[in-house]
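worker-03 picked up job from queue 'complexes'. Input manifest follows; four sequence lines, order preserved.
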Amino acid sequence: MPPSPAVAPFRAPTRRWHTVSCMRAMPASDLTGRARLREAALRLFAERGFEATSVRAVATAAGLSPALVVHHFGSKEGLRAAVDAEVLDRIGTALRDIDGTEELMVSLGAVSARMFGADPLLRGYLRRVLLEESASSAALFARLLAGAQIELDRLAGAEGGRIGGDPQWAPFQMLCLILGPLLLEPVMQPNLDQPMFNPQVLARRSAANQQLLRHGLFGPPPTAPG
Amino acid sequence: MPPSPAVAPFRAPTRRWHTVSCMRAMPASDLTGRARLREAALRLFAERGFEATSVRAVATAAGLSPALVVHHFGSKEGLRAAVDAEVLDRIGTALRDIDGTEELMVSLGAVSARMFGADPLLRGYLRRVLLEESASSAALFARLLAGAQIELDRLAGAEGGRIGGDPQWAPFQMLCLILGPLLLEPVMQPNLDQPMFNPQVLARRSAANQQLLRHGLFGPPPTAPG
DNA sequence: TCCCAGACTGAACAAGTGTTCAGTAGTTTG
DNA sequence: CAAACTACTGAACACTTGTTCAGTCTGGGA
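worker-03 finished. Artifact:
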């Protein structure tokens, strides 16, 4: 007699063919096991980092068995790849959504706001990813760099077409101003009295960055003196 | 019969009272076991991070036994504290060495050069530390912030005494420009054709930062047009 | 109806983790 | 000299890790 395999645990109905669209908005329990594992992993990786997150922790958070991770993703590394792909996809969508039409530099602030402000999970994960030494991290940064260059060209076109500083380094400086607070959030926040990524603070920071890029720290203040 | 305790392994002579000065320059084998463990830990923590470094790895790198880590530092966490203290001490010395006398903004470049350029180990370790969520990391950042504020005040004094942008956020911007490349080195470097932290590149970057802070990206170029 | 593919499980595996412990070798102190 | 102290060790501890495996359950096609 088998040692009472007991009740069959919760099991989502098999729906191989059913490619769930807009699964992002669905409650977790409606997701495929595969998707639930990936979502749980995204959250835990963002909170604790990849190394510090065990397969068991992911499985438990998803309400599933650790063995299922291997079944679906081959290995823990495979799970990471799946999460990476998902996140890069979301970021790509966010970047694509704010193309063109907006005001000068407004789009830059919009990128920050949409990508970093809204979703703390995405923020944490991005922080982790940007600090690794993997090929995908460098690729992600390259995409961000290209975006900064485009933004910079538009800004330069409106400002007189001439870059006074170091043209090669300018996009990196731009990215440092945007990504710095993201990366340094854990150490910056204790030195501030407001949440760094609430909308008001983010808008103010964005304006300050715009001002710095245009006129430096000592240029004309945003409110004209006359 | 004991299982042949074999030859006594290498053992540095006991010298409790001998507080070794300038141990930094001494070859590793002349160091106390305690110091050798700490140095090995600094290197490995900087290269792989704290979590990813095992006590055994540190001990092996130091040519000692893992149990000695506990003997000297109480625990792996104790070892980390010792390394932290050592690094903070070195940074503090570097910061103290370049007080006052220098040219405007030159000291800022000097800080970067001395702290970040010279010692890749210190760079790596600082990167790791700044991205943790510990009290000591926040404290370190607070010290850096204070330094930036001082530098900013001097700069403002020479520039007309008025900050055009956001006075509260300005020191953070300054730090983002300095620390950004440090934190993003792993993802930035693949997008560049020169080593980010060799002296020439570092000097150029420092000049670009100075230019940006003074006049923005589109202000007068460093070489006067006349 | 039977059968199969796939989702999913608990139990176990080998390997690695931080830490403990009894004990050895050398130096200092009495 | 003996005792105390310190640096240091190898072997083992209990625990966690990623992964494997045999097997159960379910839905759909034949």
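worker-03 released lock.
The domain at 20-84 of chain A is CATH 1.10.10.60 (Arc Repressor Mutant, subunit A).
Chain A has two domains: 20-84, 98-220.
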